[in-house]
């Protein structure tokens, strides 16, 4: 069973709608036992990283997530939560990806948000099997991660190579919003749920 971690109801419901259309069994919850019993976990997008981290701590899930060896998919802000350092909040991420998020203003990227653009594959990943890289993905990011050793797809923005996705061991992160990225977004969610 796939668990959508319900720290942002609106974002959880968007992903749930896609999974329902794919006939994938899932549950939306922040219950500790549901997290332990899940086969895979999705960390959705959210509006406020500080509030999400606070909620995860209050629900005793922050430390638990760090110890789990289950496949985890972080979407947009969920990907940022999987990083070590989040802009403006020193050392508060889950630390799955030993990289830092970057302030969009620092690289003058805020003017590009939201954005539809193509991704370039950097490394082979099961997450992107069957994906058409000639089609655009939809982005509405809070901050970004520059291209690094964990980058599996990238795009260029204002002469900077930005990670479209990250992968390390059992953790996957995507910066784009799959529910707004058409068939490619659905395919990525299906791959995570069925092939990983």
Tally of separate helices: 6
Order of helices and strands: EHEHEHHEHEEEEEEEEH
What structural class do the secondary elements suggest? Answer: alpha/beta
The total strand number stands at 12
Give the CA-CA distance, first to last residue. 13 Å
> Largest sheet, order of strands side by side?
2-1-3-4-12-11-10-8
**How many domain modules?**
1
Mean pLDDT: 92
Instruction: Report the CATH C-level class.
Output: Alpha Beta
Measured by DSSP, the beta-strand proportion falls in 25-35%
Q: What CATH architecture do you see? A: 3-Layer(aba) Sandwich
CATH topology: Rossmann fold
Mind telling me the CATH superfamily name?
Class I glutamine amidotransferase (GATase) domain
Rg measurement, Å: 15 Å
Largest sheet: 8 strands, mixed
What is the fold's blueprint, element by element?
Layout: E1 2-5, H1 9-21, E2 26-29, H2 32-37, E3 40-43, H3 49-58, H4 62-67, E4 72-75, H5 77-81, E5 83-85, E6 97-100, E7 115-117, E8 120-121, E9 137-139, E10 151-157, E11 160-168, E12 171-174, H6 182-195
Parallel strand pairs: 1-2, 1-3, 3-4, 4-12, 5-6
Antiparallel strand pairs: 7-9, 8-10, 10-11, 11-12
């Amino acid at each position: 069973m796939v668990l959508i971690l319900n720290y942002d109801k609106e974002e959880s419901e968007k992903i749930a709608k896609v999974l329902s259309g794919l006939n994938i069994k899932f549950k939306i919850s922040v219950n500790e036992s549901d997290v332990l019993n899940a086969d895979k976990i999705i960390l959705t997008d959210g509006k406020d990283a500080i509030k999400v981290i606070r909620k995860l701590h209050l629900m005793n899930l922050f430390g638990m997530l760090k110890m789990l060896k289950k496949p985890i998919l972080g979407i947009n802000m969920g990907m940022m939560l999987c990083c070590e350092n989040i802009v403006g909040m020193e050392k508060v991420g889950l630390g799955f990806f030993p990289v830092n998020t970057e302030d969009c203003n620092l690289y003058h990227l805020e003017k590009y948000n939201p954005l539809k653009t193509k991704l370039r594959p950097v490394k082979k990943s099961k997450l992107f099997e069957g994906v058409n890289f000639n089609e655009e993905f939809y982005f509405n990011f809070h901050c970004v991660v520059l291209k690094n050793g964990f980058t599996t797809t990238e795009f260029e923005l204002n002469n900077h190579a930005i990670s479209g996705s990250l992968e390390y061991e059992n953790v996957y992160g995507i910066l784009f919003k799959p529910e707004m990225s058409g068939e490619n977004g659905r395919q990525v969610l299906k791959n995570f749920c069925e092939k990983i």
